[in-house]
Amino acid sequence: MLLLIIIAASLLTALYKRYIPVAGVKQYDAAPAETDSIQILDVRDYNQSSHNPIPQALNLPVAYMNRNWHELSGIRIHVVASTKLEKNMSIRILKRKGYEVAGFTLTEQQSPPKQNNGKGYCYGI
Q: Which of 5, 69, 100, 120 is deepest in the core (most CB within 10 A)?
C-alpha cells in the first residue's frame, strides 16, 4: 500500500511539473525588443530555432538547461518556447535556479493535426 502511495505521488508530481502552468508569468505575442534589462532565452530545440531564429536570443534547449544554466547572464529572462510543455519545464528550472522570468512567448499554435481520411498521410509513424 505504501509503495502504491509513493508511485501515485511521484506520478502526480511529474504531471504537475509538466502540464500545470506556472502562476504569475505573463504570455506575450512577441519577444521584447529591449534586451538591456531582459535576456531573451530561446528554449526550443536547435532544429526549430535554426529555421526561425530570434535576434539577440540565447538558444538553450530545455534538454540542456540543467547542465548549461550558468551561461545565462541576466537575472530577468523572457522565455521563447514552441510548446506549453517546453515553457512549463523551462520556467520551473529557471525559477529553481534563482532567475526571475518576466514573461514567455509561444511560437507555434498548439492544435491537433487534421485527419486526411486515408489519403496517404500518416501522422506519428
A: 69
Other beta carbons less than 10 A from residue 62's beta carbon: 19
Q: Does residue 78 contact residue 40 with C-beta atoms inside 8 Å?
A: yes
The beta-strand segments (E) located in the chain are: 39-42, 57-59, 76-81, 100-106
Whether the model pTM is above 0.85: no
> C-alpha cell of 61?
534547449
CA quadruple 66, 68, 74, 79: dihedral sign: negative
Does residue 117 fall inside a structural domain?
no
Do 31 and 54 touch, CB atoms closer than 8 A?
A: yes
Residue 42 in domain: yes
Give 109-125 as a 3 state SS string: CCCCCCCCCCCCCCCCC
Q: Are 53 and 80 in contact (CB under 8 A)?
A: no
